[in-house]
Amino acid sequence: MHWQKFSGVEENFLQRRYGVSLGRRYVLAAASVVLCGVLGCSQVNNTSAFAQSGQPQRELPLPKKTVNSETKIVDANNRFGFKLFSEIQKSDSYKKNVFISPSSVAIALAMTYNGASGSTQQAMAKTLELQGMSLQEINSAYASLKQLLENPDSKVQLTIANSLWANQDVRFQPDFLQITQDFFKAKVTNLNFKDPAAPNTINNWVKENTRGKINQIVETIEPNQVLFLINAIYFKGSWSNEFDKKQTAPHPFYLTSGQQKQHPMMSQKGDYRYYENEQFQAVSLPYGTDGKVSFYIFLPKKNSNLKAFHQNLNFERWEKWMTQFKKRAGFIRLPRFKTDYDITLNDTLKALGMEEAFSRKANFSGMGKNFAISQVKHKTFVEVNEEGTEAAAATSVGMELTSFQPKPEPFKMIVDRPFFCAIRDNQTGNILFMGSIVEPE
Question: Residue 93's pLDDT is what?
């Protein structure tokens, strides 16, 4: 574990702004931040993502489930994530694939939250499910969570990078910039926003930190824009048991419209963590040598559909479902697919209660004078094939059925119609990605 001591500036800031008195002045280092949430994923190879990014690999012990602040922030992230996904689905109407990183968006907005005051702060807290947590608790929890998540094995790498790009002609509260650096480990840069090359400077950082999978998050810089807070999440994971490419073959995939298309489908037999009820089948496909991260697939049964599944999808049910998975032999067939997704989240976040933060009534006095959020943009990329996937998750070992109980019949799960999927860190329970695939490409 890496511990970081608070600077005098940080302590004075916390005491003055939040009434926090720090007896023992230590906190777990760094949290990730995102206003323009970015997520990049790519196929696994033998090159470590940490080596590519220049970040040192470090071994971290598995977290204890009793750490309250981390548990609270994970629950907050997941609650916010399901609300966000549900609101996005209202407008997308199941016509296209949706794939988001709720963690990326939440972290970005958490950094922004550090500058909010008054009713703006209260509205953001409600939307982000942060009510009841002090700012110091939130920042410390995000710093700890970043370290817990960036805990790959030889076949799984996950990096979280943050940056803050400030207009050099605008004055910001120095305490806010300092806290951003110290808690979120953000790269802070004063940039000439009038320079035509400024967007490229920001986009090059995004490109570098998503290994070229996302090339642009900023198209132009408007005259009234003063600050970009950007988070990039990059995940590479090999399956614990890779699919045999010789078993991949074209099979029909049934679209929402009722039409079908021939699509490459991967097949595999094995022992999986599996759950089934009257509405759906679900399976957990682990990454790496010890399954700290898993890809979860929820397939609505033929007498149901994805829309009905989404209507039942919320934090409470998700938590209950996670306890129901049991080890079971079975056969799975799922599509090989690759998709990217791009969305501006302004209207979505307004609908979730954050409208004031985008208006002239916005109060970001902890950041500077007369600031409001102009845009929250989110981009993702995901590829799933025989070797691995893109998205971060970790696997907790569930209790297995004892040998004294009768062995259930092997299940068969043919993912040949629209489905929901998620990448979950099983150590913490944090959902890194979630999405609905209605037409694999």
Answer: 63
Residue ranges of the alpha helices (H) in 275-387? 306-311, 315-322, 346-349
Please report where in the chains the tokens 């080890």 appear, as a residue: 327
Q: Is 394's pLDDT higher than 60?
A: no
Q: Which of 316, 440, 318, 341 is nearest to 391 (CA)?
A: 341
Question: What total number of domains does the chain contain?
Answer: 2
Alpha-carbon distance of 112 to 110, in angstroms, equals 5
Residues in the chain: 441
Radius of gyration of the chain (CA): 22
pLDDT value at position 133?
Answer: 94
Q: What is the 3-state secondary structure (H, E, C) of 114-153?
A: CCCCHHHHHHHHHHCCCCCCCHHHHHHHHHHHHHHHCCCC
Question: Are residues 301 and 158 both part of a single domain?
Answer: no
> Do 378 and 410 sit in the same domain of this protein?
no
What's the CATH code of the domain at 425? 2.30.39.10
Can you give the CATH number for the domain in which 358 is found?
3.30.497.10
Residue 257 domain flag: yes
Strands 3-5 and 26-28 come out as antiparallel
Is 388 contained in some domain?
no
pLDDT digit string, tens, across residues 246-297: 999 999 999 988 899 999 999 999 999 999 999 999 999 999 888 888 999 9
**Contact assessment for residue 379 and residue 341, using Cβ atoms and an 8 Å cutoff:** yes
Q: Is the pLDDT of residue 234 over 50?
A: yes
Q: How confident is the model at residue 408 (pLDDT cuts 50, 70, 90)?
A: low
How many H helices and E strands in the chain? 11, 18
> Per-residue pLDDT averaged across 139-168, rounded?
84
Task: Specify if 387 maps to a domain.
Answer: no
Q: Are residues 150 and 253 in the same domain?
A: no
Structural domain range at position 417: 245-334+393-437
Alpha-carbon torsion 427, 429, 435, 438, what sign?
A: positive
Per-residue pLDDT at 389: 53
In this prediction the pTM is 0.81
